[in-house]
Amino acid sequence: MRRLLVSTLITALVLSAHLCAGYARDADQPLIVVRGRALCIDSAGRPLNSPFACDETYRSFGFATKDGKLYRFLPADAMTAMFTDIRVRQRDLQITARLRAGDQLELIKVQSVKEGKLYDLFYFCEVCNIRAYAPGPCPCCRNEMEFRETPN
Description:
Mean pLDDT is 84; it is low at 18-25. The longest helix is centred in the N-terminal third of the chain and has 27 residues, at 2-28. The chain is globular. It has helices spanning 2-28, 86-89; strands at 31-40, 61-65, 70-73, 93-100, 104-114, 117-125, 130-132, 146-151. It is of the alpha+beta class. The protein contains two helices and eight strands, in the order αβββαβββββ. A five-stranded mixed beta barrel has the order 1-2-3-5-4. A hairpin with a 2-residue loop joins strand 5 (104-114) and strand 6 (117-125).
């Protein structure tokens, strides 16, 4: 019994040290706040200029800033699912993201900018009171989630 307890404690210490190291690495990655527009990236890595040019085959997204800089999002970033919605790609946006290697971004927050004011973007199910950051059916009742844009 004593060996089991010691073994469990050692495993917990090793895992917590590993998790702390991961958080420290994230702390080394700077946060940036940029304004611009989300866009689709084609299979050759080129941005598509029209928000209407995207279709279901494009699952890679980028962000073009007002000064012409192009960022790409991490391929596994689940929050980029919001950019499948043309209403989001048509808006002037402000994003907060963690800057990763190679000018890749990991999304933290997406907001629209209207008349100099920020609005939070999300999808909402009135029936289940669930908020999501991707369009589609509610994970609870399967009704379509409603797009919302609320003042910050």
